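REQUEST FORM: STRUCTURE PREDICTION
Request ID: SP-0412
Submitted by: Lab K.M.
Chain count: 1
Length (residues): 583
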Amino acid sequence: MAPPEEGMEERRNLLEEARGAMQGQAEGNEHGDVRGEAGSQDSGEEDYDDVGDDDDEDYYYEDLDEGESEEDDSEEEDEYGTLLDETGAEIVMRRRYPGDGEGSRSERGKSTGKDGKRDEEKILEEERAALDRFEEAKHLSLNNIRGILHANLGGQGGCIGNGKSDALFSIAKMLRSRESLRNWSSAKRRQLSSRVLPHGSPETMDVGDSRAYIGHFAEDGNVFIAGFQNQLMRLYEVKQSSKPWTLRKEIVARALNWTITDTSMSPNNQLLVYSTISPVLHVVNINASDNVRSLQNITDLHTPLDFGDGRYEGEGAFGIWAISFSADGKYILAGCSNFSTYLYDVQAQRVVVRAHGHRDDVNTVAFLDDTSNVYVSGSDDCTIRIWDRRCLGTSDDSSGSSNRVSSQRSQGSLQGHTEGLTYISSKGDGRYFISNGKDQKCKLWDIRMAGESKPRSRSKARMPRFYWDYRWQPYPADPEKIAHPSDQSLMTFTGHKVLQTLIRCRWSPMETTGQRYIFSGSQCGRLFVYDVVEGKQAAVYSSGDQHSAVMRDCDWHPEQPLLASVSWDGCVVRWKTSSPETD
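STATUS: Completed
RESULT:
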């Protein structure tokens, strides 16, 4: 055994070595040269990498690997949130803190570092101020559209949407005024007709042999187009609401794949374009012959418009879900299953712009106004993207489709739906539009809200994600209790069911209603009408035996008090009067 003095000396030497090591580590900390801490910071950056094409995407979803348990991710609890909804479905997502781009990461680094820690109260104060700004912008936009609708209806002031607007409307007073003035202004006519929804019994105009997927009026209301799953598209002559419709044209689709996915009539009511699950559209001149039945290359030409560079099948092939003519008839807009939108030049007969900004199928597209410059697209990735043709550019070289412009960055995006979108309908003023979603909601939007980002508290920045299939399963939650944490929509309407297929919604016409209402089909076979001014359900139309299956599409005549709808039972129904079940 060593003498006590020698043992004490050995211990003193060990303590001195330890002090020297600790001093060297402290000096390294001052210069940020600690490998372990730097490595930890790098791994944190990987967890917060941007996903997608735009920096404004704050969330994305990650599925649990098969057999993965919550214990496996216990070390990453700060970066991931796991949520169980009331049905027991597991929700997993990555979370980002408030802020944009790299700035948010640096601020997060400051809040976790020793020397750069930010005051938590200041962060909360900034979040509250940002939320106030967002809510103020939303409130101003909502008041703006209500004011526009009120002006369309000839309002003379007063409150909108609080139940007092009825006091401003007196039918008796308007009738007395008409007796003395002998006529009404267009605003007064809209004011009166907007208060009188179609009422009475529905009438069956036709019954097809297969499911009806498409049903809408031409722009002038003289023709109603119905598209069926068995290759047929029927065009009905609509003259007066009191007279039965007559079949004007029956078009047999060329190269059908599953069903007719969409149709669009040119503004001059001469060309009908139809799509199917294929990269090729077909266009028919409905006035080229007097034959009622249109067969491709026999009675009429069905001219193909190729969106896929000749790739009809195999690698590179895709389907077209939605199409729309521009107001001037020069372009056709298409939303496709390859996550892209296409702009087709009708005269040059080629694609001039392909925009690939979504991360899932593009189910719906729409131009926002008559200029045909700005359009929107809705996708199964739950987002709405805003595109400006002038920013994307178009190829004016007529040498071929290889010169088309391809873009991956939209001019803006809007969030609010928690499931994929099924349809978008524009008000036509370049600002407002509505959308239907598989989250069982119809939403009202203002594209200017794309510049307003709603802040989210770090503890609440979670969005539900359900693993279900809308084609044969019911929605697994209560739509009223499910909300997007950064919802940028102005209003939300619920009641109809968006199940089994891509249910469509539309605006009521300016001429007879001042665009006061929006309406939608439903999986239950009923037609739902919502009042934008009052912010509530206005009427529900039930046809009984006529629509015993899904009502996929419906439309409102632009000049007559007339609704029309189609459903999967093959019925084409006219709602010139049906007594609604009022709310």
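NOTES: The radius of gyration is 30 Å.
Reviewed by: T.R.
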